[in-house]
Amino acid sequence: MYLAAFRDYRHILALGERGTLPLIACDRRQARTLIRYVTGLLDASPMLAKMVSHRTAESVQLTNGVTIEVHTASFRSIRGYTVVGGVLDEVAYWRTDDSANPDKEIVAALRPAMATVPGALLLGISSPYARLGVLWDMHRRYFGREGDVLVWQAPTRAMNPTVDERIIAEAYEADEASAAAEYGAEFRRDIESFIPREAVEARVVPGRHELPRRWDAYYVGFVDPSGGSGDSMTLAIAHREADGTAVIDAVREVRPPFSPDSVVQNFSALLREYGIRQVMGDRYAGEWPRERFAAHGTTYQPCEKPKSELYALLLPVLNSRKVALLDDARVIGQLCALERRTAWAGRFNRPRPRWARRCGERRRWRGGGSHPPGQWAVRVVSVALRGAPPRGARAGVTRRLRRCARSSRHDSDAR
Fold it and tell me: N or C: fewer beta carbons within 10 Å in the chain?
């Protein structure tokens, strides 16, 4: 309220320009709660009430040229404003790198909008959650340290003594980890990144975006089909080196909307370039993927391993440096966004859609859609590491090598 009502921005704003103080939340309904707090403060003070020139359900315009308004968490819609300050509500629960609107990108979009306003402040208000994202990053870098960034961490009873202690005690008894975050202002340690970013980035080959076909290599492919309206359709191709390293050679992602048959045709053409006649994929839509790929000369084989086993396979492979990834920011970010959560019971449970529980842990993909690009990178790596190629494929590679050797000797004799 101080930033909006008690500071003069007339020397900063151009003719017809208004300063904006966005109240940003996950959705508009959540942000409207903030605007109700604002209107309550304005109406409670006769002096501030006189400053209101116009109001709607989602905005309040003040006579000093400042507008307080609701915004959703989108780095696209926040651009183009002169921001005098901003409020990030429940920022710990915003989407991270796996989303189309990562929290870091939203903050990065706000900073240029605040650059021309001296003393502009960005306020993040949230209960802690997982140890990732903007809130955790700010806490890790600035909590307890002197500087321009102030991090305030306090439990519920310190901030609001009217909360009944019995309610807090019952919450701790029911789920200590959840209650410690909700009432104790502690970041949850039972929700961690399944794959540390350092482990992923260590296996990325800088500047490598795709590899051409090698005639001495046996290639495998994995495809995640989609109907063309809700999820991306994705393809990854890999091979295994002599030392056992799985190398990602090519990745493709087609985002909706698209024609599934056209994408199948394009994917089949790419698979043929790498000598792949059989591709693995999900058990998606019954016989549809099998029939459409067969129409373009490719055999579609459903993958036998469930998602949880493929995820479980990838982590030791990364840690043992047995994989080489392409320099693809989207795949890297979404692999790092996989969560590992401690389950209530330690027994093994069968995987469920978008969830997998194994060995006392449950792993969840955070983000919209069921076909994250990191997922097919995981699967194609696991397929590449399954073992030696089939006998027929191995013989085909051997025949090509022999032909190349005969051709080389013939050229040498001719010279």
Answer: C
Q: What are phi and psi of 48, to 5 degrees?
A: -70, -35
- In sequence order, the 6+-apart residues with CB closer than 8 A to the CB of 193 are 130, 132, 336, 337, 338, 339, 340
Model confidence pLDDT, tens digit, residues 99-146: 556 888 899 999 999 999 999 999 999 999 888 888 988 998 999 998
Q: SS3 of 35, please? A: helix
Q: Taking the complete model, does pTM exceed 0.85, yes or no?
A: no
b/e burial code for range 365-388 (CB count within 10 A of at least 16 → b): bbbebbbbbbbbbbbbbbbbbeee
Q: Nearest Cα to 152, choosing from 143, 164, 160, 141?
A: 143
**E-assigned strand segments in 346-390:** 355-358, 361-365
Report pLDDT for 27: 86
Gyration radius of the chain's alpha carbons: 27
Work out whether the CA dihedral 99, 103, 106, 112 comes out positive or negative: negative
Full set of structural domains in the chain with CATH: 2-153 (3.40.50.300), 200-391 (3.30.420.240)
Model confidence pLDDT, tens digit, residues 363-396: 333 333 445 555 555 566 655 555 445 444 444 4
CA angle, corner 319, sides to 314 and 320, nearest 5?
100
Pick left, alpha or beta for residue 144 (phi over 0 → left; psi -120 to 50 → alpha; otherwise beta).
left
Q: What angle do CA 144, 150, 151 make, to 5 degrees?
A: 65
First to last CA, the chain: 86
Q: How far apart, in whole angstroms, are the C-alpha atoms of residue 132 and residue 58?
A: 30
**Tokens 């009873």, residue?**
157
Q: Is pLDDT larger for residue 318 or for residue 162?
A: 162
